[in-house]
Here is the input.
Amino acid sequence: MLFKEKMYLSNCDSVRELSIEETRKRLLIGLVFGNGIILSPNILFDNQGVSEVFKQNNVVKFLNEEGNGNFIIRGINIQDINSFSDYFDKLPNSYKISSLQGKEKGKLSQYELKSINNNIQSLDNIINKVNPIYENATIVKDSLSKEIKERISIRYFKNEEEFHTFLFKSKNLISRSEWYQFISNFFKNDFHKINSIKTEIIDPAYNSLFVNPKESFFQDNIKVLDKIPEKILSAGVTFNSLRDEIELIEYPIKAFEFITTLGTTELFKILTDKALEYVEDQVEETSISFLSRKNWFGLYPMLSKKMGLEIKW
Here is the structure.
């Protein structure tokens, strides 16, 4: 595996309105690259691509055998849920359904409610086959605002006065949707700044609430999805063979250059421990002695940052 932490797949968040194929790639990359995946209930039922992944034979087999315990569903007040139907019923009417363009639950038509309930019942049947571990996320009312204010800095503002005005006017905000609305109003038509604060401050702050120490989450889209070999997305390949496939590695010495320069365009080549062993062998043969397991993990924080992977310590 490339990353040794369990990964909260925030880059599958339904607010991104990803296509089914994009969601599929992110989920499978999480399974291959990380030491387990974490999803929120909202990501599961409000993102059409998710259930398709958990139908794949190799995913079901992996999560029931060598990957048993590697799939965690973590959210607020989920430790006692009997089903996702039960979870959805308990959501407040103000909850916004991303797959329905942000429409509030309480304003859904009978047809929309029926469609969602049918999807959730199907999801329940699928999820029960992959043995998830349910964990409660302990999030208090002002957790998001505290996290945002720890991350925000004056560099996003014209001057100190604007910064302090921002902090004062946002003091009673609670939800992510409230923060989105607030910054849209505060910065009016400055769409670049609005988007920057959303992606660099608000979203990472929100995602970090669902992550425990020594776990991680993606801040950004992985920039190399088009380079991932279709073979790793196939429903037929087993994850054991996937992690050992030398065919997927095919390392020239330039893989060493990739690691030392931390480029991302060839990330798809670093899929397994075997890949790293191969690079080390090549380095030894060329008398380059300073790449080893020890200093690979010295580069690890830099690679994580380059990838947009935030690790919670």
Observations:
- The chain has three domains: 6-139, 143-208, 225-312.
